[in-house]
Amino acid sequence: EGGGPGRRGERGEEAPGEHGPGAAFHMFVLMEDLLDKLKLLSYEEEALRRHNMRPLSRHYFALPTNPGEQFFMFCTLAAWLITKAGRLFEQPQEYDDPNAVISNVLSELRSF
């Protein structure tokens, strides 16, 4: 049959609904895996206590609840992980320019 746009396999794209019934929950599984890995690295003791922050919920980054707070938490964790990997990295502040913060994080990650 004729293949219109959106057919599975064209340019690596899939039509909506072709991911299977569990695709909607994939982000939640990824977040739980991330949280398990952060706990193995003792993020609660090393990163959160230092900045007086509360622990992440199992679905913290999977649901957009407070983008500003979530972005700052992401930047805080990214800076902590970069530092834990042995690099000097300045902890971003809550009111820093988001574009500059992300640029610094990406630049540091590229240097790895």
From TrEMBL:
Principal location listed in the UniProt entry: other
Compositional bias per record (Basic and acidic residues), positions renumbered to this chain: 7-17
Entry annotated with the keyword Acetylation: no
Alphabetical UniProt keywords: Cell projection, Cilium
InterPro entries on file: Intra-flagellar_transport_57
Superkingdom assignment: Eukaryota
Record keyword DNA damage present: no
Full protein name: Intraflagellar transport protein 57 homolog
